[in-house]
Fold:
Amino acid sequence: MNDETAMSNFSSLSSSPSRSAVAPAWLADATTFQRRLARFNAQRIAPAQPHDDWAAEVQREAQMRLEEGAFLENLRAGVVARAAAAPTEADAFVAWFEQLEQNGPGQHDPLFEWLARSATREQMLWFLRQEVAGEAGFDDLLAYTQVKLPTLPKLEMARNFWDEMGRGSRKGMHGPMLSDLATEVQLNADIDATVWEALALANAMLGLALNRRYAYHAIGALGIVEQTAPGRVQQVGSGLKRLGFSARQRIYFDLHSAMDIRHSASWNAQVIHPLVAANSALAPSIAEGALIRLSCGARCFERYRAELWRRPHIAPHERE
Ligand SMILES: [Fe+2]
Ligand SMILES: [Fe+2]
Structure:
C-alpha cells in the first residue's frame, strides 16, 4: 500500500478553520510525517537538563504540536459519527464499549491466527520489530493520563500502574519484559525501519495522553487496549511457542493474555463507568478514543498482512 492509497483510508480534513489552518504535510507523505513526529515524541518525553537552545526548542515544539493536533483531529473525524451513536447512560455505555471487542475496527484480524499457526521465525521477528518500534509504553501513557482525574478512576489507574511496575519488582515490570525480548533476539527496533502505520498508532496514543484536551480520549484508548489485547497476545504467544521461543521470552505475551482480562473489567467498572455516570457528556470522547486506537490498529494489521503475505521471507533489513 503506498502512502497515497493509505491516506485515503483516513477521513478528509474537516473544513473548520481550526483544522484547515494547520493542514499538515503528513497528508501528502505519511511516512515522513510519522517518522518526524515519532522522533519529536522521543525527544519530547526524554528526561533532560536545561540548555541554551530551550527557547528555539519551545518554538519548534509549538509548530510540531500544531501538526500533531491536525493529525489527531483527522483521526477524530474518522470515528466521530460512530462514537456519537454510543449511548451516554453509564451502564449502556459500558455495554457498548464491551461490544467493541467483537465489532470494533480490526478486531479478530486474520493476521493473528496466521502468526499463531503459520508465520516463520523471520516473519514473526519482523512483526515484533514493528510492534516494539511502535510501542508507546502503557505505563507512561497511564502516568500522563491519570493527572487530576477524580478519586475512583485515579485509584484504579494507580492499581493498574502498580501492576505495570511489577508491584515493585523489576522482574515483574511489563515494559522491560518486552524490551528484554527485543534485546535478546536482536530486534533492533528503529523508527526508520518501521512502517508508518505502526508509528501513527504510537504517535496517536502519546498525543492523546499528553494533550489534556484529549484526556478522556486517552482513557478510552487505554481501556480498549486492555480489552482487546488478550485475544491478540494469546495468539502471538502461541506462535512464539510453536517457533521455539522460551517461556521467559514469551512472558510479556503470556502474562497479558490473562492479566489484561482483569485489567479491562476493572477499567470499565472503576474508570469508565464512574466518569460517564458523573458526566454523560464524556461518553463520546471516551468512545472516540477507543475507536481511534482500534482504527490505528486495524491499519497496522492490514499493512503487516500486505508486507508479510506479499514477501513470505521478508528480511528485517528490507523494511522501509
Ligand atoms: Fe501491561
Ligand atoms: Fe494491562
